[in-house]
Specification:
By secondary structure, the protein is α+β, with helices and mostly antiparallel strands. Helices cover 67% and strands 11% of the residues. A 5-stranded antiparallel sheet has the order 1-2-3-4-5. Strand 2 and strand 3 form a beta hairpin.
C-alpha cells in the first residue's frame, strides 16, 4: 500500500472514530470519565481502560524514549522539525506550517466561542444549528491537523511523539478478564505486530482517552 493510500485510509478511519466520539463529547464533560486515575470504556461489547502509568512504568517509558531518540538522531537521513519546516517554505509552491498551525488555533477559538453560545442557547432548533457548526469546525480542524501531521511525519520530533503515544498505549491499555484488569497487549512485539481493524480503532480510542487522562501532566 503506497503512502498516499495509507494516509487516505488513516484519515477516513480517524474521521469515523472522531464522529463516533462526538456524541460523548457533547453529552458530558470528558474529565468526568476519570475515576481512580483511569478511564474505562467499552468497545464492541468488551471492557477496556487506560490508566496513569506507575512510577516504574514511567521509567520504562523514559528508557524507551531515550533509546528511540538516539536511534533517530544517529540516522543522518532524519531531519528535525525546524529543518523540515524551513525546507517546505522554500519549495516552489511553499507550504507554510506556522500559518496552518495558526489556523488550527483560530478554529479552536471559534469552537470555544460556539460552545459558550451553546450553553447560553435554550431554543432546540438553534442549539441543533450550533452543534452542527461546532461539528463542522471540529472536522475542519481535524483535517488540518492531519495534514500538518502528514507533512511533518518524517521529522525526528514527530516520529518520537508518535512512538511515545503508542508506547504509552501499549503500557497502560487494559481489558477485563475474569473481573480482573490485565494488559491487553502482552508484549511490545505483539503490539507492533497487531494489524486488525479492531486493534487499530481500539488503539486510536485508547490514545484519545489517554490524552484526556494525561492532559495536565
Amino acid at each position: 500500500m503506497d503512502e498516499t493510500k495509507k494516509s487516505e485510509d488513516r484519515e477516513k478511519m480517524l474521521a469515523q472514530v472522531t464522529q463516533e466520539l462526538k456524541n460523548l463529547d457533547e453529552l458530558e464533560e470528558m474529565e468526568s470519565l476519570i475515576q481512580n486515575n483511569s478511564i474505562e470504556f467499552s468497545y464492541q461489547g468488551q471492557a477496556f481502560r487506560v490508566r496513569k502509568p506507575t512510577r516504574l512504568e514511567k521509567l520504562e517509558v523514559r528508557s524507551a524514549k531515550n533509546k528511540k531518540q538516539n536511534e533517530l538522531l544517529r540516522d543522518s537521513s532524519n531531519v528535525t522539525e525546524v529543518e523540515l519546516i524551513d525546507t517546505l517554505l522554500k519549495r516552489q509552491i511553499p507550504v507554510n506550517i506556522p500559518q496552518m498551525r495558526h489556523e488550527v488555533h483560530t478554529l479552536q477559538q471559534k469552537i470555544e466561542e460556539m460552545a459558550v453560545r451553546l450553553t447560553e442557547c435554550q431554543l432546540p432548533n438553534d442549539r441543533k444549528k450550533i452543534i452542527e457548526q461546532i461539528q463542522g469546525l471540529r472536522y475542519e480542524q481535524l483535517t488540518l491537523q492531519l495534514r500538518i501531521s502528514d507533512l511533518l511525519s518524517c521529522c525526528v520530533e514527530k516520529q518520537l511523539r508518535d512512538f511515545l503515544r503508542e508506547f504509552l498505549v501499549y503500557v497502560v491499555l487494559e481489558t477485563k478478564s475474569e473481573d480482573k484488569w490485565v494488559k491487553y497487549f502482552k508484549s511490545y512485539d505483539q503490539f507492533m505486530a497487531s494489524n486488525s481493524d479492531f486493534d487499530d480503532k481500539l488503539i486510536y480510542r485508547a490514545a484519545h482517552y489517554l490524552a484526556i487522562l494525561l492532559k495536565d501532566e
